[in-house]
Design a protein that fits this description.
With 391 residues, this protein is α/β, with parallel strands linked by helices. It is built from 13 helices and twelve strands. The chain has a seven-stranded mixed beta sheet with strand order 1-7-6-5-4-2-3, sandwiched between helices. A three-stranded antiparallel beta sheet has the order 10-11-12. The protein is globular and about 60 Å long. The mean pLDDT is 94. The structure holds pyridoxal-5'-phosphate (PLP).
Length: 391
């Protein structure tokens, strides 16, 4: 029996580029960057700045989707704000826009628009709701690079993550991008943050080598079998601290370049899996991008972090997960549950999962397939063979 397994997600960590000069960031026209210790820290800082705009409020509220990363809740809670969860639109990774409008109250300070595995949220519609109610719009682009707002300045704040399993893996770190009209008012908050230095010394280089080694098929398959590592599990961690942390010199530049040069295998997946659509499966990426195009929204990239599908039912999804993983493909249910059902989150949000039928249905039927740089055509054909064979 082989342990070999294609990892579900995650780019290799690049080597820093020498003498690259200053990064011409794709967001530089509208946003200034602040580098911090994680994506969660960046998001929490955005929430803090949103709360500060409305300092008279006793109990600030922040709107976010009911299906997503538990770090969203951690970032909001850390600033003493209340997370207000919103059900998804049916069969989509997007918030139900009517539910967002209905959830805005006098206490709302911000709306978090969360991109999903390379598919951005509907920023124009959310911008309209934010403007109408005079609240801040935060684009959490931890899973989407580059962010939707970077060429149009729609969101007030953008959040990037450079952690494991994100588009650009720099062994951790994150960035808060502040729209230029908010830079002055955020200066005092930023000046108060402690600063942590990271250097690309021998220890960093060894860590990079080891992380990249563990991403290879034989070692990933082995590592996944070690229970205490908890690989692939969704758990809630409170946010411990927010520090400024500049990436190793030349590393972000190398990461951006590597990501831009990556081949996009979404089209190969949609083609290989075309027959599934007639069998009640939903190919989320092509459908969402098509819907966005019809509404005149042009994402900056269609590069996916993982290839997402909705199975016809939970039973079929679970069977597909089992068979793909047996076949050496790291398929995943992703978060597995709507936010209020995740351990540690349920105590913090005043909602039960049953309040979010679409988010629960999405969590039960979602399956994600690897789409990273080491996925080859044979892998996609292997996936198609298994999924078309079982349905
Ligand atoms: C991973 C993630 C975060 C948190 O980023 P870290 O760098 O892991 O703290 C926030 N939001 C979303 C949507 C994420 O996927």
């Amino acid at each position: 029996m082989s342990f070999s397994k294609l990892r579900p997600v995650g780019g290799r960590v690049p080597l820093p580029k020498a003498n690259c000069g200053v990064l011409a960031a794709p967001w530089a026209g509208y946003y200034d960057s602040v580098f911090v210790n994680s994506g969660t820290a960046a998001l929490s800082l955005a929430v803090k700045l949103s709360v500060n705009c409305r300092h008279t409020l006793q109990s600030p509220e922040v709107i976010l989707p009911a299906y997503g990363c538990p770090d969203l809740v951690a970032a909001v809670i850390a600033q003493g704000a209340r997370p207000v969860l919103i059900d998804l639109a049916e069969g989509r990774p997007w918030m139900n826009l009517e539910a967002v409008e209905n959830a805005v109250t006098g206490n709302t300070v911000g709306i978090i628009a969360v991109g999903f595995l390379g598919i951005p949220e509907r920023l124009f519609a959310l911008r309209r709701i934010a403007d109408k109610n005079d609240v801040v719009l935060i684009e959490d682009s931890a899973q989407v690079f580059p962010p939707f707002s970077c060429g149009n300045g729609l969101a007030d704040y953008l959040v990037l993550s450079f952690g494991r399993g994100k588009p650009i893996n720099l062994i951790g770190g994150g960035a808060l991008l502040i729209r230029k009209d908010h830079v002055q008012q955020s200066a005092s908050v930023l000046a108060a943050l402690p600063e942590v230095q990271v250097s690309a010394g021998a220890a960093w280089r060894f860590k990079r080598w080891l992380i990249n080694l563990l991403l290879t098929r034989p070692l990933y398959g082995l590592m996944e079998r070690i229970p205490f590592l908890g690989i692939g599990q969704t758990v809630f961690h409170p946010l411990a601290s927010i520090n400024r942390q500049t990436p190793v010199e030349g590393l972000l530049e190398a990461g951006v370049q590597g990501y831009n040069n990556r081949k996009d295998n979404g089209a190969a997946y949609s083609e290989a899996l075309l027959e599934l659509t007639g069998k009640d499966w939903v190919q989320l990426a092509p459908e969402c991008f098509e819907e966005m195009t019809r509404e005149g929204l042009v994402p900056a990239s269609s590069n996916l972090l993982r290839y997402p599908l909705l199975a016809p039912s939970r039973q079929i999804r679970d069977k597909a997960l089992l068979e793909l993983n047996r076949g050496g493909i790291g398929a995943s249910a992703f978060y597995g549950q709507a936010l209020p059902a995740i351990d540690g989150v349920s105590e913090l949000v005043a909602f039960t999962p049953s309040a979010f039928p679409c988010a629960c249905d999405f969590a039960e039927r979602l399956i994600t397939l690897p789409a990273h740089q080491d996925v080859c055509l044979e892998d996609i054909q292997c996936v198609a063979g298994i999924l078309l064979g079982q349905s």
